[in-house]
Amino acid sequence: MTETTGYTDSAESPESTDSAESTSPSRRSVIGWGGAGLALGAAAAGGAVALTREGSDTQLVAADGGAVPFHGKHQAGITTAVQDRLHFAAFDVKTTDRAELVQLLKDWTRAAERMTAGHEVGEGAYGGLPEAPPDDTGEALGLKPSRLTLTIGFGPSLFDERFGLKDRRPEALIDLPKFPGDNLDRARSNGDICVQACADDPQVAVHAIRNLARIGFGKVAVRWSQLGFGKTSSTTPDAQTPRNLFGFKDGTRNIAGTDSARLDKHVWVSGKAAQGPAAWMDGGSYLVARRIRMNVETWDRTPLQEQEDIFGRDKKEGAPVGRAKEHDEPFLPAMKPEAHVRLAHPDSNNGATILRRGYSFTDGTDGLGRLETGLFFLAYQRDVRTGFVPVQTSLARADVLNEYIQHVGSALFAVPPGVRGKDDWWGRALFS
Fold it and tell me: In the prediction, which pLDDT does 41 show?
C-alpha cells in the first residue's frame, strides 16, 4: 500500500535489541519523587516469583522478567525485536520555559528507565501519603516488563523560537510534502514530541504512556495517540513474516536488527549527516509515522488474482511473481507496472531503503457501517529525503493499492541517540 502494507519491499530483510549497555538506575537517581518504589513483579506462567531486598525496598522479581535494556548507543525500540503491541503518543509542549522542558525530559528519562525494567515510577502506586496522589498509576502492578521499550523523538515544531533551538534543526527534519491522495487530519498529525511505547502486553504499553502524560501534566499535553496490534513487519528475518489486514505477508525484505552494515547505511545518523545543526543526532535516526486507513470492505470483495496482482506476491506463500518462495529475489519485470512490490522496491527508487516497525489498528467504526481500520506505519531511516519521500512519491503516483487505502495522519520526528547511563537523559545533546 502506499506504504501501507507499507513498502513491502522497500527495506532489506534478524534481530537484536538496540542497547549494548545496561545500567540499572539507583534508588537515588529518580528525580522528583524522592526515591524508588516497589518493583513491578509478575509471576511467570507457573507463578514462580523471587523475593529480594534492596535497602528498605522489597522487590518482586519475575522468574522471566522480559526486560529490554534501556541504555545504549541507540534508543531501544528501533532495531529491537518487534513487540506485539503499540501505544504511540504525540505531545504538544505547553510550557515556554526551556529549563522546565529540560527538567521534564530528565524526569521522563528516569521514569522510562524504571518502567522498562519493570519497576513502578517514583514511590509507587500505593503506600505513600494518603493526602497525595500516588507516583505511579498502578495498572501495570503484577505484570511483567513484557519487553517494553520507550523511544522519544522531536518534531519540527519544537525548533521554533520558544526554546532557542531554531539553529539546531537538522536539514533532514523537513516538513513532509503533501503526496497525491493524502487526506490528512491535522488533529492526528505532527506534534512537538513523540513517544513510541512497544510491549508484548498492551496494558504495559498504555501504562507507560499514561505515566509520562501524568508526569508532564501542565507542561505537555497529548495531541494525538494511536494503539496498535499485530505487528506488520519484523526485524528478525528467521521469524515468520507477519501479515497485514489485507491478509498478505508484510515486511519480507525489512532490514535485520543485526545487519550492522545496512543499519549504518540506511538507519543511523553519522558522519556528514551528523554535522552542523545535526551534530546532536549522531547515533539517532528519523521516524516517519503515517496513519493509513484501509478500506477492508472493498478489498474483501476483490478477486484473489487481482489481490495478488496488486501486491506482486501470492497470498499463501508470499512469493514474488514467478518465484516459489517468499524470500526469493523478486523479478520486477514479471510484475505489473503498478504492482506495490515493484514500485516500493529499492531498485525502483535509486536504492531507497527504510526500516519498518508498523502495526495494524482498529478504532471502532466510521459511522457509515465500515470498520475504522488500517495500518499505523512507522519507518526509521538515516534521511527521509533519500528514504521515505522518494518511495512514497513513487507509490502515491502509481500504486494500484491506492484504490483501497488512504493516508489520513502524518508526522516526522528526529529520534536522538540512546541514553548512555544514569546521568544522561533524553535529548541532552540537543539542549546542552
Answer: 30
CB 121 within 8 A of CB 105: no
Q: What is the pTM of this model?
A: 0.86
Residues of the chain with pLDDT under 50: 1-5, 11-63, 65
Using a 10 angstrom Cβ sphere, with 0-12 exposed, 13-18 middle and 19 or more buried, the burial of residue 336 is middle
Give the per-residue pLDDT at 407.
Answer: 98
- Write the DSSP symbol of residue 400: G
Q: Give the C-alpha separation, 182 to 147, whole Å.
A: 34
Determine the Cα–Cα distance for residues 173 and 162; give it in Å rounded to an integer. Answer: 18
pLDDT digits (tens, 9 = 90+) for 337-391: 999 999 999 999 999 999 999 999 999 998 889 999 999 999 999 999 999 999 9
| Class of residue 171 by CB neighbours under 10 A (exposed 0-12, middle 13-18, buried 19+) | exposed
Q: How far apart are CA 287 and CA 411, in angstroms?
A: 8
* Tens digits of residue pLDDT in 42-52: 333 333 333 33
Contact 124, 45 (CB under 8 A): no
Residue 183: how many CB atoms within 10 A of its CB?
9
Q: 265-268 — which CB contacts under 8 Å span 24+ positions?
A: 265/353, 265/382, 266/11, 266/353, 266/354, 266/355, 266/381, 266/382, 266/387, 267/78, 267/79, 267/355, 267/380, 267/381, 267/382, 268/74, 268/382
The rounded distance, in Å, linking the Cα atoms of 247 and 300 is 10
**Residue 400, all three cell numbers:** 494500484
Q: Note the helical H segments in 145-250.
A: 202-215
**Which helix (DSSP H) or strand (DSSP E) does residue 27 occupy?**
none
Count of CB atoms situated within 10 Å of the CB of 115:
26
**Under a CB-based contact definition with an 8 Å cutoff, are residues 153 and 74 in contact?**
no
Integer Cα distance of 129 and 50 in angstroms:
28
